[in-house]
Amino acid sequence: MITITAQQARQFILSKQGLIGAYRFNGKEGAYEYVRRAGCIQYDPVDVCGKNAELTLQSRVKGFKKSMLYELLYEDRKLVDYADKELSIWPTEDWPYFASYRERSRDLGATFEGLYELKEKAVDHISKNGPVCSDTLPLKGEIFWHSSMHWSGNWHKKSPAARSVLEQLYTDGVLIIHHKNGSRKYYDLAEKYIPKDILNAGTPYESEDEYTAWRVLRRIGAAGLLWDKNSPAFLGIELKADKRKKIFSDLCAQGKIKAVAVEDIKTPFYYRSEDEELMRKIIEGGADLKPRMSFIAPLDPLLWDKALILALWDFKYSWEIYTPADKRKYGYYTLPILFGEKFAGRIEAVPDRRQGVLCVKGLWWEPGVKVTKKLTDALERTLDKFAKFNDCSSVKML
Question: Which of 104, 266, 302, 346 is the most buried (most CB within 10 A)?
Fold first, then answer.
């Protein structure tokens, strides 16, 4: 096992994720390529200065516009919204890998009396009339129902029949999201949009353990480096300590991942073997580490494991959106500021779209950060780009 410094670990992660050096992802195709490499990016409906998935892409993709993600999802159909690391966006080509998830959803749905008949009615209506939302699907009343999107819960809830049936058919894989109007989801039959060779493909794995290993490998690729700990980066994967260790061991034996030690950290880290050349460049000093500034999304793959970030960067981040206002240390929707290899600060920027102005409500530099002209120039350029990303033409510091 090789040993690297914490600085080299930081450089490797940022290089792997496309957050340092020259932009490696450009335009709509670059956005698609990044999602393919990451496996999935998390979706969250809250839109303060862009939704989480959009924010994730704007920090890595040169020239990214929000419309590009919409097109990839609902026009090109190269990406789909579905469960993975909670609500996520991932490549349509990965559809076969989630066959057991959809099967589990169907099995759970079959335990609810009357749900099958309601599903039949919904499918019949949609096949004849096209996309629907919960307000336009003519199913009245309420049913007691367990959402398949929340496997860990054992609760039943009484909810509108139309919404419950649509979500059940969605997790079953019968429906996909056709488009969104704000946070309102419209559904249509998956068979209309997913190519038959993908929709009807058999599972690419022989066992659930093999499927779990595939998901673990994908999460390692998204993060760059992950350690042998119970990590939020593995959220959505049933992965107790003994199973995690076995999967790491098996993936190493198969030559799919490699272990690396980080100085002053006892726990081993792992990276994908396909990134061996990047690791060598980091160690030998040949990687492109030209600094640039980015505002990082709250649920960005870089921040999936905040304990890891604290260990490697000495940066503690908490998304305070659900923290009562009087208990917040920073702001409602504060984004970390990444500059070069370091987290330099945090920013809360909210667009006033009526006036076309991006309003900076808060700016907090990390202790020890020197506010140099180089830093302020980088901030000005990044704010200008962030304003355009939010359809604003100017920036105002409040």
Answer: 302
> What domains appear along the chain, each with residue ranges and CATH number?
112-193 (1.10.10), 304-397 (3.40.630)
Q: What is the pLDDT of residues 298-323, one digit of tens each?
A: 999 999 999 999 999 999 999 999 99
The model's pLDDT over 349-359, given as tens digits with 9 standing for 90+, comes to 999 999 999 99
> Contact at 8 Å (CB) between 344 and 337?
yes
| Distance in angstroms (rounded) separating the CA atoms of residues 218 and 36 | 10
**Dihedral angle of Cα 21, 27, 33, 38, to the nearest 10 degrees:** 60
For residue 339, the cross-strand partners are 293, 342
CA 321/CA 13 separation, integer angstroms:
26
Q: What is the CA radius of gyration of the chain?
A: 22
pTM above 0.85, yes or no: yes
Four-point Cα dihedral 112, 114, 116, 117, nearest 10: -170
3-state class of 41 per DSSP?
A: strand
Tokens of residue 172, six digits: 């079953």
DSSP 294-340: EEPPTT-GGGS-HHHHHHHH------GGGS-GGG-SS-TT-EEEEET
CB-based burial label for 124 (10 Å; 0-12, 13-18, 19+): exposed
Closest CA to 111 of 136, 77, 143, 82: 143
Mean pLDDT for the stretch of residues 101-118: 89
Name the nearest CA neighbour of 194 among 99, 319, 65: 99
Alpha-helical segments (H) within 43-194? 52-58, 66-74, 99-109, 115-129, 161-172
Both tokens of residue 214? Answer: 């595939």
The closest of 284, 288, 252 to 269, measured between CA atoms, is 252
Give 248-293 pLDDT, tens digit per residue: 999 999 999 999 999 999 999 999 999 999 999 999 999 999 999 9
